[in-house]
Amino acid sequence: MGFKNLKTLDLQSNNIATIKEGTFTKLSNLTTLYLQNNKISRIEKVMFQDLHSLQYLYLGANNISTIKHGIFMGLKNLKTLNLGANSISTIKHGIFMGLKNLKTMYLQDNKISRIEEVVFQDLRSLQDLYLGANNISTIKHGVFMGLKNLKSLDLNGNNISTMKQGIFNGLSNLTTLDLGHNNIATIKEGTFTKLSNLTTLYLQENKISSIEEEMFQDLHSLQYLNLDGNKISTMKQGIFNGLSKLTTM
């Protein structure tokens, strides 16, 4: 292609299975690329290397199962990356290297069961992360390390059963956390420590039977708390102490 002044390229909803090396060469001014709803199964390492101005990349609803290390390395201006509705099972360390200006990432509706530690550490500008409707059962310590600007984290519709202490440490700017529709039975003391800016917390449709006395003690900014559809039989006295801004429950 020789359209050097092209800003937007829309190739969505076709039957594209393969994108050959050099397809996007010389599209140095391209800012938006739509490739969703095709049949793409592989992303070659050099596929996007010339798209230095790209800000929005949509790869959702394809057949992508694996993302290679450093595949997005040259996309330093990328703001939105959509990889939702694919067949990705593992998020490996290094695949998001170089995306220092990324603000929104969609990884929902995949088959993700494993996320390696510090996999998001290069995404220091990220504000919204969508991981809903996957097969995540465990969140390791350090998975969200480096996401100091994250505001919204969606983990709705996974298989998470236990919330470990300190897994959200470092997410000091988080305002919305969605843990609804999981298998959470136990939330350990300290799980929500340091989430002082959290305003919205979804815990509906889990298997929570009891609420520990100090579970919410650090959530001083919380305004909305959803605990619908759980198995709560016991609520200790004073569990909502400190939630002075809570308006909806």
Automatic annotation (TrEMBL):
Pfam families: LRR_8. SUPFAM superfamilies: L domain-like. Keywords: Glycoprotein, Leucine-rich repeat, Repeat, Signal. Coiled coil: none annotated. It comes from the Eukaryota. GO terms for cellular component: plasma membrane. InterPro entries: Leu-rich_rpt, Leu-rich_rpt_typical-subtyp, LRR_dom_sf, LRR_TM_domain-containing. SMART domains: LRR_SD22, LRR_TYP. The keyword Protein biosynthesis does not apply. This is Insulin-like growth factor-binding protein complex acid labile subunit isoform X3. It comes from Octopus sinensis. The lineage of its organism: Eukaryota, Metazoa, Spiralia, Lophotrochozoa, Mollusca.
